[in-house]
Design brief:
The protein is α+β, with helices and mostly antiparallel strands and 135 residues long. The protein has one domain: Nuclear Transport Factor 2, Chain: A (Roll). The chain is 20% helix and 44% strand. The longest helix has 11 residues. The radius of gyration is 14 Å and the shape is globular.
C-alpha cells in the first residue's frame, strides 16, 4: 500500500498501460522485482547515492542489483512530495542480509518523466522495533 500526501503530482503512462506517479511506479516495480518496468523508469544517466559506504551506483548497477534477487523489501511506503522535477519518499526497509531494518528517506530528481538521480538517508531501527499502531 502506498500513502500519498502531496496534491501536485505528475502521472505518467507506463509501458504496461497503467498511470501512476513516478515514485509509486518505482516502488511497485521494486517490490515486484520488475526489471523491465525499472528500466523504463530509471533514466540512462541516473546516479544513485545510497546512504552507505560513499557508494555511487549507475542505472546498470541498480538493475543488476534487482536482477540478483537479493533486494531489500519495504513497508509503509509514503510519498511525502512529488512534482515533475523532484520527489521525496519515506519507508521502512528490511535488508536481505538480516542487518537492522532502517527508516529510509529518499530524494529523487526527475528528467523526462524518469529518475535521473536519487539519494537516501537512513536511521537504523532496533530488532524489537514495532510500528506504532501495528499491534
Amino acid at each position: 500500500m502506498i500513502e500519498i500526501l502531496n496534491t501536485r503530482r505528475i502521472y505518467r503512462r507506463l509501458h504496461f498501460g497503467k498511470y501512476m506517479s513516478v515514485i509509486a511506479a518505482y516502488n511497485e516495480a521494486w517490490d515486484n522485482g520488475d526489471v523491465e518496468a525499472l528500466e523504463a523508469l530509471i533514466h540512462d544517466d541516473c546516479v544513485f547515492n545510497p546512504h552507505v559506504g560513499g557508494m555511487t551506483m549507475s542505472k546498470s548497477d541498480i538493475l543488476g542489483f534487482v536482477k540478483s534477487g537479493n533486494t531489500p523489501t519495504s513497508e509503509n511506503n509514503r510519498i511525502l512530495y512529488e512534482n515533475d522535477e523532484v520527489g521525496v519518499a519515506h519507508s521502512i526497509v528490511h535488508f536481505a542480509n538480516n542487518s537492522d531494518s532502517e527508516a529510509v528517506m529518499s530524494f529523487m530528481r526527475f528528467k523526462e518523466g524518469q529518475i535521473i538521480s536519487m539519494e537516501t538517508g537512513a536511521t537504523p531501527l532496533s530488532d524489537d522495533y514495532k510500528l506504532i499502531g501495528s499491534e
